[in-house]
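Title: Prediction job returns without error message
Component: structure pipeline
Severity: low
Priority: P3
Assignee: unassigned

Description:
Job completed but the reporter wants confirmation the result is attached to the right record. Sequence as submitted:
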Amino acid sequence: MPKNEMLSAQELPHSLMLDGRERLSVTGVEDVSSFDEQSVIALTSRGMLTISGDGLHIERLSLDLGELVVEGEISALEYSEQNADRRGLLHRLFG
């Protein structure tokens, strides 16, 4: 098994770089569960990250590299436990 596949999610490097509240670069991204102009919800190696703002759009997403770039007017960044949203939408609606 290649070394890259042996790394667990907790071992992925995670960082945030916010440039003038208009451009956010995130590493350690495993998945993006939803996005629209007001929010982007991403699963990172350190938990679920909700990015809130106005006019948001995903400039770049590379799950192979674990990179996400969001542009727009960013007003808030919030982490929650990563297992909380892993159950899926149907479980949250009917569970």
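Comment from assignee: result matches the submitted record. The first strand starts at residue 15 and ends at 19.
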